[in-house]
Amino acid sequence: MTVKEALVAELRRMGHYTKGDQVPPCAILWPDPEAQWAEAIAAVRDAVPELFILGPFQPDQRTGPAVWLRCVEARTVEVRPPAGTIPIFYLPRVSRQDLRAAEDCPAEWLPLVELQFRGAVWAHVNGRDWTPYAFLVSQEGGLGLDVARDEATDEALRRALPVLLEERVEGLHGQKLASPQFNELLAPDLPRKLLGWMNDPKQERQRVSASEWKAFCEQCQGEYQFRPDKDGELKAAELLGHREAGWPQVWQRFAEAPQRYPGVVKLLERITPTTTGQLTFNEEPWPHYTDAAERELEAAFRALAGQPRATAVQAVQQLEQKHARRRGWVWNELGRSPLAAALEPLVELAQRTASPLAGESADALAQRYCEDGWRTDAAAIAAMAFAREPGKESAISAVVRALYFPWLEESARNLQHLSVSSPLTPRGSCVNGPSGRVVLFADGLRMDLARQLQDELNRAGCAADLQWDWTVCPSVTPTAKPFVSPVRELLTGAAPDAEFSTAFSGDGKSKLWTQDRFEEALGAMEIQVLRVGSLGDPTRKGWLETGAIDKHGHNEGWKLAALVSQEIAALRALIQSLLAHGWREIEVVTDHGWLTLPGDFPKAEMPKFLTEHRWGRCAMMTEQAHTELPVRPWHWNPLVRVASPFGVAAFKAGLSYGHGGISAQEMVVPRLMVRSTGAAPEDARIAKVQWSGLRCRITVEGNAKGLTADLRSRPASAESSLQESETPGPKAFGNDGTVSIFAKDSAEGSAAVAVLLRPDGTVFHTQLTTIGGTA
Question: What would the mean pLDDT of 104-128 be, rounded to a whole number?
Answer without folding.
Answer: 85
